[in-house]
Amino acid sequence: MGVRGKHIVLGVSGSIAAYKAADLASKLIQAGARVSVIMTQAAREFITPLTFRSITHQPVVTDWWDPASDLSIQHVALAESADAMVVAPATADLLAKLAAGLADDPLCGTALATQAPLLLAPAMDAHMFEHPATQQNLRTLQERGATVVGPERGRLASGLTGTGRLAAAETIMGHLAALLGRQGDLKGYKIVVSAGPTEEPLDPVRHIANRSSGKMGFAIAEAARDRGARVTLVTGPTALPDPPGLRTVHIRTALNLRDRVQEEVRDAHAIIMAAAPADFRPASMAEQKIKKGAEATMVVELVKNPDIIAETRGDFLKIGFAAESEELLKNARTKLVEKGLDLIVANDITAENSGFAVDTNKVFLLEPSGQVTELPLLLKTEVADRILDRVVELLAARGKRPVGV
Ligand code: PMT
How confident is the model over 133-157, as pLDDT tens digits? Predict the structure, then answer.
């Protein structure tokens, strides 16, 4: 899912941020997209067409009248073949031309001719961005269905700090993937995903945690987003940035996680618990930092945390994970039954390149019917899509069509 196999038309206009469009083009190519670049004349003042041609291996369109460009003959060629059009950077001038429906250059002409979704990533001086004319143009374009990503706050070319920096390539790509997946097979469904560890505090400085990085849960959340779902990601502390195009809720302790999950699942169609909540927490948290003292040992009394997924009640699919170090299938099936799950993803956390913190996972999918599906070692992004493939089937089997779909 996402941009793989898609044809993205990338419009580049004349901002100092035009050089960042080369990085975006490169990331799109690496993600499996085909990219056709259209540059305004002003963009060519900042970066050359050769740069983009070297990255995309596609002709770069710069003007209507270039006899070498196939666009001059079929000037809506790109418009018709685009799966999405991204304008990054989008200058104030270009936004004004798009809002007015002008078509005197190939970028504006293609934007006017295409039926594909349009994503605009503005970049300009902060005062230009805040100007009522620019704000009005953005509102006009959004009312027509365009998606606006950024700009972000930061240091600008002028040396000032303000809102005008081009959004990061990863942010643009996340929103683009969501845009491309809007009509996906999870369209209209609300999916709640939990990810990451919890932290169970001992004192103001120390806590008990685990090695979960959040990668598995984040991959599921992003994959569900890219298939059209409305996603809420409830995550413990991780080093991962909040994924664009979905709602992220941050928690710390297992009790926090329990409270937020119970809140979020009220209108959900499915919950996928990829998080690693602590089964125990310290019986009490010391008000002050615990002093070492003379004793060679220390005993910490632990009390059980609630079993969050087992406790959740409602008319939604319950998908859990089983992190096991031995007797994987036996232990996973026990959890499947005891927790009342519709599906459990069993992963051997001792297998090489599987489980905590790594980018891959070796899993089995177990169901109450007794069905067991073994997956080969896959990237967590691929495991995510395979889990969601089964979620789509289970939702359809339960007749859980979302309202209005
Ligand atoms: O985050 P990564 O670094 O990518 O690592 C991924 C992962 C190994 C954390 C993930 O694949 C995984 O296995 N997550 C589940 C970890 C876990 O807590 O497994 P468990 O067998 O202890 O729990 C079984 C199920 O009950 C899980 O769905 C868990 O979310 C849930 N649970 C556990 C404890 C608890 N108090 N409440 C729960 O709901």
Answer: 999 999 999 999 999 999 999 888 8
* Cβ 14 under 6 angstroms from ligand 1: no
| Predicted confidence (pLDDT) per residue in 103-113, tens digit | 989 999 999 99
Domain that holds residue 80: 7-180
Amino acid letter for position 353: N
C-alpha of residue 368 to centroid of ligand 1, in Å: 19
Instruction: Name the pairing type of β-strands 161-165 and 360-361.
Output: unpaired
Same domain, yes or no: 124 and 221: no
Q: Whose CA is nearest to atom 5 of ligand 1?
A: 356
Number of compact structural domains in the chain: 2
63 shares its domain with 166: yes
DSSP H helical segments within 190-292, as ranges? 215-225, 254-264
Q: In this structure, how many other beta carbons lie within 10 angstroms of the beta carbon of residue 252?
A: 16
3-state class (DSSP) for residue 215 = helix
Cα torsion angle, 234, 237, 238, 243, sign: positive
> What six digits make up the tokens of 249?
């809720």
Q: For the stretch 200-220, what's the b/e string if a residue is b when 16 or more beta carbons lie within 10 angstroms of its beta carbon?
A: bbbeeebbbbbebbbbbbbbb
Cis peptide before 151 (omega within 30 of 0): yes
